[in-house]
């Protein structure tokens, strides 16, 4: 059995009388420890997939299996526990708390988590040990994204979900962030899923799932993902 499986997943949003088919029978699998890129144009359904996988929303029909559990059957309480303990989120615009320091931002994320990692070790792992007392406004965009990655990793999640993690960064800084995510995936055996509309990023995925109009258009395995040094 695969670590993650989407089996014939549909998501239909209702807005008044209008139905929007965001996912129309999506199927794919992801292995444990895989670095997966979900690519596609704006409106293709990428965020919908990430929201369902992260337990932030529920499918209309279909099955979603994560680590042997059918999360598509979970009630809200179970979904909250799942989201809190099993999933780390990284966003395009970092979403740090501005009046907390780097360390406090990471610490906050670990507070209600079952089995968090050591805060200072995690900050060191993203290369920010000299920045622990700084506030977000005192560090660069790339450093803020590193804090966001540390915050997500400190929860000791099974899956790291990244929504356009380099979208607000310049090319070189973005490359460094992708490298950090890739190395983290391989060294810590965390499954990483990155959504992007940037095809250059796709070349880095062990697996690239292309979505179009709510359906999987293609799934490509890269034997030798493009190196990002
Ligand atoms: P992507 O992330 O690839 O840009 P999304 O998953 O955000 O795509 O959106 C897929 C489709 O679902 C789009 O047509 C979008 O407008 C629609 N959609 C997304 N979220 C909602 C929502 N909360 N309510 C209504 N329609 C939505
Ligand atoms: P709390 O545990 O404080 O009640 P939640 O259960 O709502 O918070 O969220 C648990 C985790 O899911 C947190 O790490 C939070 O950052 C993330 N999360 C919750 N809602 C969203 C959302 N709409 N978008 C992105 N991440 C979210």
UniProtKB/TrEMBL annotation:
<keyword id="KW-0067">ATP-binding</keyword>
<keyword id="KW-0813">Transport</keyword>
<protein>
    <submittedName>
        <fullName>Putative ABC transport system ATP-binding protein</fullName>
    </submittedName>
</protein>
<feature type="domain" description="ABC transporter">
    <location>
        <begin position="4"/>
        <end position="229"/>
    </location>
</feature>
<dbReference type="Pfam" id="PF00005">
    <property type="entry name" value="ABC_tran"/>
</dbReference>
<dbReference type="InterPro" id="IPR027417">
    <property type="entry name" value="P-loop_NTPase"/>
</dbReference>
<dbReference type="InterPro" id="IPR017871">
    <property type="entry name" value="ABC_transporter-like_CS"/>
</dbReference>
<dbReference type="GO" id="GO:0016887">
    <property type="term" value="F:ATP hydrolysis activity"/>
</dbReference>
<dbReference type="GO" id="GO:0022857">
    <property type="term" value="F:transmembrane transporter activity"/>
</dbReference>
<dbReference type="InterPro" id="IPR003439">
    <property type="entry name" value="ABC_transporter-like_ATP-bd"/>
</dbReference>
<comment type="similarity">
    <text>Belongs to the ABC transporter superfamily.</text>
</comment>
<dbReference type="GO" id="GO:0005524">
    <property type="term" value="F:ATP binding"/>
</dbReference>
<dbReference type="InterPro" id="IPR017911">
    <property type="entry name" value="MacB-like_ATP-bd"/>
</dbReference>
<dbReference type="GO" id="GO:0098796">
    <property type="term" value="C:membrane protein complex"/>
</dbReference>
<keyword id="KW-0547">Nucleotide-binding</keyword>
<dbReference type="InterPro" id="IPR003593">
    <property type="entry name" value="AAA+_ATPase"/>
</dbReference>
């Amino acid at each position: 059995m695969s670590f993650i499986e989407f089996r014939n997943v549909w998501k239909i949003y209702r807005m008044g009388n209008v139905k929007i088919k965001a996912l129309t029978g999506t199927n794919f699998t992801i292995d444990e420890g895989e670095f997966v890129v979900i690519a596609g144009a704006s409106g293709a359904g990428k965020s919908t997939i990430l929201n369902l996988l992260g337990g932030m929303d529920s499918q209309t029909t279909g099955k979603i299996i994560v680590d042997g559990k059918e999360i598509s059957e979970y009630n809200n309480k179970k979904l909250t526990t799942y989201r809190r303990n099993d999933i780390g989120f990284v966003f395009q615009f970092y979403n740090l708390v501005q009046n907390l320091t780097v360390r406090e931002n990471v610490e906050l994320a670990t507070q209600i988590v079952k089995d968090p990692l050591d805060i200072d070790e995690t900050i060191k792992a993203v290369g920010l040990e000299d920045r622990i007392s700084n506030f977000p406004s005192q560090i660069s965009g790339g450093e803020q994204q590193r804090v966001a990655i540390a915050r997500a990793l400190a929860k000791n999640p099974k899956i790291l979900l990244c929504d356009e993690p380099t979208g607000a960064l310049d090319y070189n800084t973005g490359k460094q962030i992708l490298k950090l995510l890739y190395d983290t995936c391989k060294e810590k055996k965390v499954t990483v899923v990155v959504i992007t509309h940037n095809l250059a990023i796709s070349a880095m995925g062990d697996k690239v799932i292309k979505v179009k109009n709510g359906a999987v258009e293609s799934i490509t395995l890269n034997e030798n993902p493009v190196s990002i040094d």
